[in-house]
Amino acid sequence: MKYSKELLKGSTSLLVLSVLKGGDLYGYKIIRELERRSQNEFQMSEGTLYPILHALEKEKLLESYWQEFEGRNRKYYHITKKGLKELAEKKEEFEAFSASVNKVLNYV
Amino acid sequence: MKKDEYIASAVSKISNQIAKRETEKELAAHIDELTEFYLDRSSSKEEAEERAVADMGGSELIAEKLSQLHPSPISTFLLVLTVIGLIRLLIAIVFYFEFFLGGIMDVLKEIYVTYELMTDGFTFFCAKPIIVLILSIINVTAREKDDCPSPYNGLLAIICVGIWVIAAYASFQTVSLGF
To answer: What is the predicted ipTM?
Structure first.
């Protein structure tokens, strides 16, 4: 199902932080992991991901480092303590918002 | 679009040179991973690379977003210096006309004169703006040929130098008049 840009816009940072909570990953793997977890519902374009990663790093929610693997240099991202706290807050906010929307939509 | 073309376009608006080089490497690594993924599904490496680049999305959009995230450190530095220069100029002007304000100015004068004496006078205040101007010229001329050169840094450097020189001259006059 293709979701509207407006719906996705507010959630992409939350999704990226959530994926990185599971462990350090590099850009390509973050997209693949997001697809896997959402069973291909979320297919983020590569070009969308990097501004998000850089913005989160600028806010100190992520840290990055380079690591060589089989002759290839990859930039890994690691979620910081501040990032974990932000993720928990955003997750709580999203769940509350989602529950409220459902109440209105399912109101009889 | 070829890989190198795409990357050059995507990072073209990043003015921070360190961030630009890092992002180039990062995007290149990603395209290489995607190319490898498409290699089994394509008739040639070139075709696989084309599909990988197509998956990356529009380079102009990513360029715009990345440029906002990575401002030039020189611009920030010059802005800070300009603000400091303006404050110094304001203090020097106020001290020159201090008879309008009375008592509080005497206290500020003491602090200001002490600062002036500690920082070794007129020559020191002129050297700093010249260093700022040189750094700004280096930053502007270091841009790639294809980039749109921004006159912003050069203009800001000139304004900053002007303010510092005026502030330095004013403060020199203030000190030499024995305040």
So the answer is: 0.83
